[in-house]
Design brief:
The chain has one domain. Helices cover 74% and strands 0% of the residues. The protein is mostly helical. The chain has 16 helices and no strands. α2 packs across α7, α10 runs parallel beside α13 and α13 runs antiparallel to α14.
Amino acid sequence: MSATCCTNWLAEWTAYSLIGVEKGTRLGEAVCFFVYDVPKVLLLLVLVVFAVGVVRSFFTPERTRRLLAGRNEFGGNVLASLLGVVTPFCSCSAVPLFIGFVTAGVPLGVTFSFLIASPMINEIALVLLFGMFGWKVALLYAGTGLLIAIFAGWIIGRLKLEKWVEPWVYASQAASGAGSAEERLSWPARFRCGGKAVMEIVGKVWLYVVLGIAVGAGIHGYVPQDAMASIMGRGAWWSVPAAVLLGVPMYSNAAGIIPVVQALLGKGAALGTVLAFMMAVIGLSLPEAVILRKVLTLRLLAVFFGIVAVGIMAVGFLFNFLL
């Protein structure tokens, strides 16, 4: 879709003929943007979540923990980051996963690589970015997210900050069941996992997606392009750290933030600044910090957020400079 007008005939007919908004107005542009994006994004979301649900049936948290146990240094950080992309994870599961990994012998830095990659390199966001912006932007997002997860975890591991984990974590016993036989699923069962993921995940996030598209429609229709370029453009050196600071207290899932990203880019915002904003919203959310405080001291939590924030800002500055 064009950055300045709606080019889909069905969306134009719905907005201008069926709903009756006036063509060429700011409201018309916003409504057309909304009508065009809602079915497209929701359909793409259903297909992606189904495929991800099937893939995730191969990677249970228990299997992931066994794969990472005993790993250390750089190789462990790389493997943990890659596994984080395909392993189920959300803010509510951060504490049990952290405890399970640490008590199973997974090094602290490797554990953090997993915890960073899992929400940040969200496969739903990856495919939505591919569908909206093409493979270059999608690979840019995935590659930079992996680098942040790998090197942030490696730095934390090299700093030897185990003493800053809450003492009760190491006193906990690892979850039992390591010796139990792992269930082998048939393909019909894996497809049912995909269908269940659609019911659970899409059922929870569809409203966020619609709200995100509504915000994006408002930006598309009402925010002047020159104003957005001056605030989030390459020329404003402070835009990247400001975008990260703005993204941290916000809470949104990846599917909900993508339409906002689309609208910001369409209005002239710089790609690096928008990527930094998106990564901060997804990877440095305030609710996740509150949850992780249960297992991390304030000093370790500050180090974790600080290192990841610096990595995100470096990505923003780099791509604003190169692109």
